[in-house]
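Figure 2 data, in text form.
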Amino acid sequence: MYFGWRIDADKWFDYAKLNNLTVTVRIMHFEGEDDPDFSENDEDDTPETIVEEISKYHSVAHVFWSFIWELGITPYTVCPLKCCMSLRGSVTMLALQDNYKDNSTLTQDRLKKLQDMLGEPGPPGWYASNHFHWTYPSR
């Protein structure tokens, strides 16, 4: 289970572009579609093409990172974007914690401020995860 809000990634990607919060990633494309195992390549290195492009989901995550850090909320995982299950298919969401780890930095005051920053009409809720396990390794 994830605790947070369902989000519209397209809306937040537009926000990232308007507020200079986009993230550029370098995508590596391997050449040699006609030679999938590169056996015709006499050189030791694999031919490649590197393309820079703006990543929608990295940019949206960057927006939420900026909100979370501004409010002093400690993230429970590397990426705040998660995929949850619903009756209408999968949904992208901002996840603030899961049901395996508590997050003491999620005070009512901080949650209310984050709700206002997101423009959400209601408080965060619990959503079914598409990732689960029976036990969580202790640290």
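Caption note: DSSP finds three helices and six strands in the chain.
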